[in-house]
């Protein structure tokens, strides 16, 4: 199970520069709209200090961190849902991701063209959000148009489901027509589950990423404050990053060089590492580990998953034939130093099918198929 984030925003807000920094694999970047046509995809290892410590103590031959996939989706413009700019093909790319990172330009630079002629984060966000809402509205309208047929089905499950969905769909339609994102509509958990099959873009969690200049990193400018206020009102996440600075950091070859550069710039942690952590938290994702002399690996799971489901993250056979899980925690390993000493201290446990896995658990699964 991995995390897949789509990077969206208007043209020339710094998405491709940011993507290049994320992956250290340059996407084409240029000072004109629609530079990015096909989505660039990059797989990024998640920096987790626990993984490094586990490897120090266990000494494996191989280290495999968990990953995040970032998809750089081309700049959307007003009218994209109706085919303007490069149109609906980009909206299709956005539907395929788990979460949205909405890059917002929060810096002034006369040398970098703004598609609307001026920097106004609130207007920029509204433009993108409206296009995504209108794209979802098209999906909802098609579903509503198909309801009469579904309600007449001889299959009671199909007809029953259609009757349940009808009032929810009309509620969602009314709000989308106002430009309200589906995630901000007052729906119950059950109602949201009924809408899941539509895979609405605006139902996905969003993180607003303020792209600032170096001065903007030190002190929030008016643009950043506007984005933070907007995000707070709709219950979304927001943070700031300097895409130009992150790309310079990513271009350095060694971790020591990167550390020295960040210290000189007054940065404690890379903006990209903070971004990855926030994206994980948005989706309620956690990490457990498998640790042995052959390999130490980090695995991503959803908060609340039980042991058999987490075993299935490794392979479906592990879940199907699950017998038990041998478990101890990262903190136990750090405290006692080795798995053997963890056992001696009575911190090594055997858990069954109902065990809810915790972030930082180190696990061995026993299964039979």
Secondary structure: elements and pairs:
Blueprint: E1 3-8, H1 15-23, E2 40-45, H2 49-58, E3 62-64, E4 67-72, H3 88-95, E5 99-105, H4 121-151, H5 156-177, H6 189-195, E6 206-211, H7 214-218, H8 222-234, E7 237-241, H9 243-251, H10 255-265, H11 271-282, E8 285-291, E9 295-302, H12 307-314, H13 316-320, E10 322-329, H14 330-336, H15 339-344, E11 349-351, E12 361-367
Parallel strand pairs: 1-4, 1-5, 3-9, 5-6, 6-7
Antiparallel strand pairs: 2-4, 8-9, 10-11, 10-12
Helix pairs in contact: 1-9, 4-5
Structural notes for this entry:
- By secondary structure, the protein is α/β, with parallel strands linked by helices.
- It contains 15 helices and twelve strands.
- The strands form three sheets. It has a six-stranded mixed sheet, with helices on both faces. It has a three-stranded mixed sheet with strand order 3-9-8, sandwiched between helices. Strands 11-10-12 form a three-stranded antiparallel sheet.
- Strand 8 and strand 9 form a beta hairpin.
- Helix 1 runs parallel beside helix 9 and helix 4 packs antiparallel against helix 5.
- The chain is flat.
- About 5% of the residues have low confidence.
């Amino acid at each position: 199970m991995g995390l897949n984030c789509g990077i969206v925003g208007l043209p020339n807000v710094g998405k491709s520069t940011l993507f290049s920094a994320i992956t250290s694999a340059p996407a084409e970047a240029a000072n004109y709209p629609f530079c990015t046509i096909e989505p660039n995809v990059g797989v990024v290892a998640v920096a987790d200090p626990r993984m490094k410590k586990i490897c120090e103590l266990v000494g494996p031959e191989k280290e495999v961190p968990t990953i995040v996939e970032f998809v750089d989706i081309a700049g959307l413009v007003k009218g994209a849902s109706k085919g303007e700019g490069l149109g609906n093909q980009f909206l299709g790319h956005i539907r395929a991701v788990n979460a949205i990172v909405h890059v917002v330009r929060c810096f002034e630079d006369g040398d970098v063209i703004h598609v609307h002629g001026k920097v106004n984060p609130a207007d920029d966000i509204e433009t993108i959000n409206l296009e995504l809402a209108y794209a979802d509205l098209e999906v909802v309208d098609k579903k509503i148009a198909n309801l009469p047929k579904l309600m007449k089905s001889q299959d009671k499950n199909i007809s029953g489901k259609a009757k349940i969905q009808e009032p929810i769909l009309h509620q969602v339609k009314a709000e989308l027509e106002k430009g309200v994102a589906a995630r901000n509509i007052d729906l119950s958990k059950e109602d949201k589950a009924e809408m899941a099959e539509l895979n609405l873009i605006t139902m996905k969690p969003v993180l607003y990423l303020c792209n600032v200049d170096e001065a903007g990193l030190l002190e929030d400018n008016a643009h950043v404050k506007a984005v933070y206020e907007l995000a707070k009102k709709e219950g979304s996440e927001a943070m700031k990053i300097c895409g130009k600075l992150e790309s310079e950091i990513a271009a350095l070859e060694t971790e020591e060089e990167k550390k020295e550069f960040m210290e000189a710039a007054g940065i404690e942690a890379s903006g990209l590492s903070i971004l990855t952590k926030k994206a994980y938290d948005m989706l309620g994702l956690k990490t457990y580990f498998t640790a042995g002399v052959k390999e130490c690996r980090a695995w991503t799971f959803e908060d609340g998953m039980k042991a058999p489901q987490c075993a299935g993250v490794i392979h479906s056979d592990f879940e199907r034939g699950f017998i038990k899980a041998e478990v101890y925690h990262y903190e136990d390993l750090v405290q006692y130093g080795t798995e053997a000493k963890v056992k001696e201290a009575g911190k090594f446990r055997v858990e069954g099918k109902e065990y809810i896995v915790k972030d930082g658990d180190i696990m061995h699964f026993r299964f039979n198929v």
